[in-house]
Amino acid sequence: MSKQELEVIGQDAACCPGLSTAPLDEDQAADLAKVFKALGDPVRLRLMSMIASRGEGGEVCVCELTPAFELSQPTISHHLKLLRQAGLIDCERRGTWVYYWVLPGVLDRLAGFLTTTEPAGAPA
Predict the structure, then answer these.
(1) Which end of the chain has fewer CB atoms < 10 Å from its terminal CB, N or C?
(2) What is the DSSP string of the chain?
(3) Quick one: 100 exposed, middle or buried, by C-beta within 10 A (0-12, 13-18, 19+)?
(4) What's the mean pLDDT when you consider all of the chain?
(5) Whole-model pTM?
(6) Chain mean position to CA 3
(7) How far apart, in whole angstroms, are the C-alpha atoms of residue 76 and residue 43?
(8) 16-19, Cβ contacts within 8 angstroms, sequence gap of 24 or more
(9) Bridge partners of 102?
(10) First to last CA, the chain
(11) How many Å apart are CA 105 and CA 103, to the nearest integer?
(12) Partners of 26 in the β-ladder
């Protein structure tokens, strides 16, 4: 397992304002594009869903993820690597297995970015 430091985007509110708050600058758009590109693949989106469904602090063994797909183990590992590089998940090797979890706050930050606020007086 690599001990490479990954920069997690959107850790502060100034980094990634919501779509309706302010336009993104070039760097913010590039960072978010990496995340959305990682999530733009159906296999990676399913993997992310499987990992995230364990709840905060939950983790999933790769041995539980691989059988859900008709893909080879190296292909699943490649998809998981791309999710890690996008700053969405992290992992830890324990013996022969690798366990994955969603990085804290990542989904909330993405949801916050995509959420628009209702203008005052707008119908509910």
Answers:
(1) C
(2) ------PPTT-STTTS--TTT----HHHHHHHHHHHHHHTSHHHHHHHHHHHTT-TT--EEHHHHGGGSSS-HHHHHHHHHHHHHTTSEEEEEETTEEEEEEPTTHHHHHHHHH--PPPTT---
(3) buried
(4) 82
(5) 0.74
(6) 18
(7) 8
(8) 16/109, 16/112, 16/113, 17/113, 18/112, 18/113, 18/114, 18/115, 18/116, 18/117, 19/113, 19/114, 19/116
(9) 89
(10) 48
(11) 6
(12) none
The rounded radius of gyration (Å) of the Cα atoms in the chain is: 16
One-letter amino acid of 117: T
Handedness of CA 65, 67, 70, 76 (dihedral sign): positive
Q: pLDDT tens for residues 25-65? A: 898 888 888 999 999 999 999 999 999 998 777 899 999 99
